[in-house]
Design goal:
This is Phosphoesterase RecJ domain protein. InterPro entries: DHH_sf (IPR038763), Oligoribo/pAp-PDE_c-di-AMP_PDE (IPR051319). This protein is an alpha/beta fold and 429 residues long. It has 14 helices and 12 strands. Strand 8, helix 12 and strand 9 form a beta-alpha-beta unit. Helix 3 runs antiparallel to helix 8, helix 7 packs antiparallel against helix 8 and helix 7 crosses helix 9. The radius of gyration is 21 Å and the shape is globular.
């Protein structure tokens, strides 16, 4: 296939898809065949802040790759679970796929699973058009699933705090093999291998560096390689706001992937239309928003589980308003299958001095197990707060309205303590 250029890449529609979800997709998981040796992109140089190709503790990418290689060799012929966040985005999906293909080189089988459901139109297209091998594993199904055939689990683009499946994996006694992520450290982890780099804009960048160093030699004549490279390019673009927030490492990764990805396939993924339900949630966010000190805060009420990804899309829309640098959108998501409700929210910001991870952790704190309800990366973040005893029982509309008003007021209060400590959103008189 012809080589693609950055001109083509930047001509693609802009997208922002940071917290999305995936339907179950079954595909034939064949082994990847490597026949072409790619040249390595430079892994040294002065980026102005941190050496290119180095992670946040200073060890080189080369040493990380060698450490991962040793771990994979130790676990040859095994079967592992790759856990994604409940609502995986393109960065998580593509990175997990790349990890799976790398692991296959060591006769190590990886099953990519998540507990959520697909609702973001771009993720539907990504999974269907590329045949991306991610499988939905609802919690109730996982509880009855025999996990004894797995010898360990892997976390990609998350650290377990956003996966309902983590507790089940821990109950099964599976050891943590690897953690590969670009979010800030969420808690104490003890994996055999860890590569956590908050300074890198996308986990897809980290996985692409692994490919550059030869853990898997991409071949543009192998369809599975081309599709995975296309998915990685989508994940990289999505988490860097179409490369506008990209750093040198991300550009190097995009340059490498440009030799393998399918421009027309990526264009098809990005040109999917918003559903009517998404447009309705965006309309609700516009009607309900409160703008204060350049923050736009909007509660959108109750949403079906399948419409959960309308929340980050509404936040993407609100942050484009004049005189707004940060948007927070949230709602109560009802999962009928699991009979639970969760307050889910998304944050988007263009303010360089606002750290979404610190902001959300300070706003919402952590549970009694020390896990933060919220977190983020550069420019974006999200939070998820279980409603526990108050879940469900919405048959009486007056009760459902009252419950929403209480949670809506509590979320606004916590946010506005940081947005404007002088004001209180709750009137007690």
């Amino acid at each position: 296939m012809p080589l693609n250029s950055f001109k083509q890449l930047n001509s693609l529609p802009s997208t922002s898809n940071s917290e999305s979800s995936v339907e179950e997709v079954e595909i034939d998981m064949g082994s990847a065949v490597a026949t072409q040796e790619p040249s390595l992109a430079p892994l040294s140089g002065d980026s102005g802040t941190q050496p290119v190709g180095r992670n946040n503790n200073g060890s080189s990418t080369t040493s990380k790759v060698e450490a991962l290689r040793q771990v994979l060799e130790r676990h040859q012929h095994e079967r592992h679970l790759v856990l994604l966040q409940d609502f995986p985005d393109p960065d998580a999906l593509s990175s997990a796929w790349a990890y799976q293909l790398i692991a296959q080189q060591y006769d190590l089988q990886c099953d990519i699973v998540y507990a959520g459901t697909l609702s973001h139109q771009e993720n539907i297209a990504l999974v269907k058009l590329t045949g991306l091998p991610a499988q939905r594993l609802p919690v109730q199904t996982a509880k009855s699933k025999d996990l004894s055939g797995y010898k360990g689990y892997v976390l990609v683009d998350n650290q377990g705090t956003t996966s309902q499946l983590l507790s089940l994996v821990l109950e099964a006694g599976l050891p943590l093999i690897s953690v590969i992520d670009h979010h800030s450290l969420q808690g104490e982890l003890k994996p055999e291998f860890a590569d956590i780099r908050p300074n890198v804009r996308a986990t897809a960048t980290i996985l692409t560096q692994y490919l550059q160093t030869g853990l898997l030699v991409l071949d543009s004549s192998v369809g599975q390689h081309v599709k995975c490279a296309t998915a990685l390019m989508h994940g990289l673009r999505s988490d860097t706001s179409s490369l506008m927030q990209a750093q040198e490492e991300d550009f190097q990764a995009a340059g490498f992937l440009s030799r393998f990805y399918d421009y027309q396939l990526l264009k098809a993924v990005l040109q999917t239309n918003r559903s009517k339900r998404v447009m309705d949630v965006i309309e609700r966010s516009l009607k309900n928003r409160i703008v204060q000190n350049n923050f736009s805060i909007a509660g959108v009420g109750y949403l079906r589980y399948d419409d959960r990804d309308a929340i980050p899309q509404a936040a993407d829309f609100l942050v484009t308003e004049e005189n707004v640098h940060t948007a927070v959108v949230y709602g109560i998501v009802h999962d009928e299958d699991e009979e639970l409700e969760v307050v889910i929210g998304s944050l988007r910001t263009t303010k360089l001095t606002l750290d979404p991870d610190e902001f959300l952790k300070e706003a919402f704190g952590q549970d009694n197990q020390g896990r933060f309800f919220g977190g983020g990366r550069s420019g974006a973040g999200g939070f998820e707060i279980p409603m526990g005893f108050l879940s469900g029982s919405n048959e009486i509309s007056a009760y459902a309205k009252m419950k929403w008003e209480v949670f809506d007021a509590q979320i606004k209060q916590k946010l506005q303590r940081l947005v404007n400590p002088q004001d209180s959103p709750i009137q007690t008189e």
